[in-house]
Amino acid sequence: MVTIRAERLGVALGRRAVLADVDADLAPGRLIGVIGPNGAGKSTLVRALLGLVPLSGGGVRVDGQPVARLSRAALARRIAYLPQGQTLHWPLTVERLVALGRLPHLAPLSRIGEADVAAIDRAIEQADIGHLRGRVATELSGGERARVLLARALAVEAPALIADEPLAALDPGHQLEVMALLRRQADAGALVVAVLHDLSLAAGHCDRLLLLHHGRLVADGPPDRVLTADRLADVYGVRAWIGEVEGRRLVVPISHHG
User: Fold this and answer.
1) Per-residue pLDDT tens for 112-133?
2) Which one is the CATH code of 4-256: 3.20.20.80, 3.40.50.300, 3.10.450.50, 3.40.50.720?
3) I need a surface site. Which of 44, 133, 140, 188 has the fewest CB within 10 A?
4) Sign (positive/negative) of CA torsion 168, 189, 10, 72?
């Protein structure tokens, strides 16, 4: 189990504050969505949680330890990371690309063992990419590539997963499948943090939402408390219909306030 704590977290790019005074305790067994308009600081936040950007204030602790004190290998074994918009340059097969997720567990120059092969197989099955196993990854469509990269993150079998826009380039059916997969990971005890743009998918699948606006955390809690009509108007500038269909909460933007 992994816990992550951000304390008065701040990140600046030059003179511009990208994040300011963000506090959040992230516990295992939860699917936590990070939402907000473009430029709100969502990707910066998840990168800061992983120690990938310098901080202008505050700090991040993973299992009580400052993230900066953890080696990259130790952190990679605890938290699998799926960045957004990755570009593939090498013509690896899908199976070999997914196998890269096992690198945090391998000593230098060592070969994968039976446990690694089993983890790779599980990740391929979970991401539903078995039919792509022998394909060259650089020849895949954007949606296929997104699912393969998710499988690589799942192959780590870390107790926490941070995914930055895991639904990008996916059709609606695969978006639902990926959200269900993330839900299952959380239900199995993992800490799952996902940057999301689709508010209905966030509302219908996440236990908790962190809403960012202008680099500040303006709401933190269950979806029904975060995604209110007034808040959607203030943060997104939209009028929206909010309701439930088949037991799932939906948020449908209707018009822009202008």
Assistant:
1) 899 999 999 999 999 999 999 9
2) 3.40.50.300
3) 188
4) negative
Predicted confidence (pLDDT) at residue 220 exceeds the cutoff of 90: yes
Domain boundaries, the chain: 4-256
Q: Token digits for 132?
A: 């792509």
Quickly tell me which residue has 């960012």 as its tokens: 212
* Strand duo 79-82 + 160-164: pairing: parallel
Catalogue the E-assigned strands of the chain: 4-13, 16-26, 30-35, 57-62, 65-66, 79-82, 160-164, 191-195, 208-213, 216-221, 238-245, 248-256
Taking a C-beta distance cutoff of 8 angstroms, is the pair 3, 62 a contact? yes
pLDDT tens column, 155-165: 999 999 999 99
- pLDDT per position as a tens digit, 12-70: 988 889 999 999 999 999 999 999 999 999 999 999 999 999 999 999 999 999 999 99
Distance in angstroms between the alpha carbons of the first and the last residue of the chain: 45
* Torsion from C-alpha of 155, 157, 160, 163, nearest 10 degrees: 10
Helix (H, G, I), strand (E, B) or coil at 179: helix
- The residue type at 185: Q
CB 215 within 8 A of CB 56: no
Residue 258 is which amino acid?
G
Integer Cα distance of 124 and 127 in angstroms: 5
